[in-house]
Sequence to fold (477 residues):
Amino acid sequence: MYDKPLRRRRITLALLVAFSLLLLTVYFGESAGGGLHSVQKGVLEVVSPIQEGASRALKPIRDLAGWFGDTLDAKSDVDKLRGQNAELRGAAVAGTEAVRQNRQLQGLLGLDRSTALQRTEPVTARVIGQSPTIWYSTIQIDKGTSSGVRAGQPVITADGLAGQVTFASGGSAIVTLITDGDIAVTARVSENGVPGVVETGPGGPDDLLMKWTGRDDRVEDGWTIVTAGTTSDSDRLESVYPPGIPIGEVTSVEDAGTDSQQVHMRPFADLRRLEFVQVLTATPNGNRG
Amino acid sequence: MSDARQLSLRLVALGMATVVVQVAAISQLRVFDTNADLTPVVIAAAAFLCGSLPGAAFGFGVGLFLDLALVQTVGMSSLLYLTIGFGAGRLRELRDPQAAVVPIVLGAAATAVAQMGFSLMQFLLGEPVPLDPALLRQILLPVLLGGLIALPVNAFVRRFLLPALPEDPRRRRRRAYTTGGLSPLSRA
Fold:
């Protein structure tokens, strides 16, 4: 009498644990076109319209919470920005002249940034979901293969690089953000062209690392890191990211002047509060500069 | 409709709604530079009411749905959430704690198990898990948020599931006592 429910409970629990482990094993063992991946694709197709509706319906709540957060952040930023403002005013005077000349030259060469982005055929998408844990830096967008979105395409925001499409179904896609451990971006320092690879850092969503810079490569706080694009002549080593897309700003340099120099940076794009993104669906000239 | 069937339907609806709300809204709300995780709190609250077996099954189902809907590693969330569901259910079955802070402690504990479980599983699966203060902060803050949201979440889950729950003799006894049913004065 006493043992029956106890045994039933143990058997059910053991079955559920065994089934979870089986799912894990099968998922890791199968290819991207395997059974479980296909089921995920099907579920994504069914769930994404619901997700989109829920995302729109819950937008006022997100906005309200965002307003409180922004107000608190703004207060702490005021002093810092006042100092930066004085510093930047001087730089702006010098910069205006450089920008004017740069515009002229870009116009002459036909390398206007907007034109360059137009050539990548950007598709604007709304963010309809976001992973709840820090271990999966993924978002879900409302555009999929029917809009030309495919796995491997880069994703940007108005502020800079956001990530890469890693899974696409008919009407939606999953974007893995640059803060995910699976993403690495070939990059260079905008100020002096020092190359490196940007990967996720240990400090959460606002910390990226630029690795593989040399001991003689000078990098300073506040400098800008941009995508390097394809640097090889070989078609087999094409980068998925077009050159010149801003990634982030250098916040500190660890072990400067050594072989293990690591450049910490903060992404320009606010990756925890994304509403719209653009997927670059074409790779003009193999993403070469 | 039988109680068991009604309870199953309510649990399915609750699980799906939780995942959709979490993914579409809560994950995008940034509080203290992180976000709350509604899922383990809801699972713990439901399991605490329903018991260890329904709790484990509910946790498994919610985890599976989350992994499928977000194209994550299938099986990982299921394993973690079924542990949370089973643990919360067993706590009720073995101890039946009545203190007012129980939902808060339960919500924080469930979030802590989820956060640390994910870290451990990522480590076991070969992902780099650096022991960094910033990472610990990213793990600990959601635990605090989990405790904070636990009270309203628990109240909602209780309200939603209670009509479908089988009558609990202990609950009936307590209610009878507080309304005077077993009071010597009422017998007189």
Chain A touches chain B through 57 residues (CB under 8 Å).
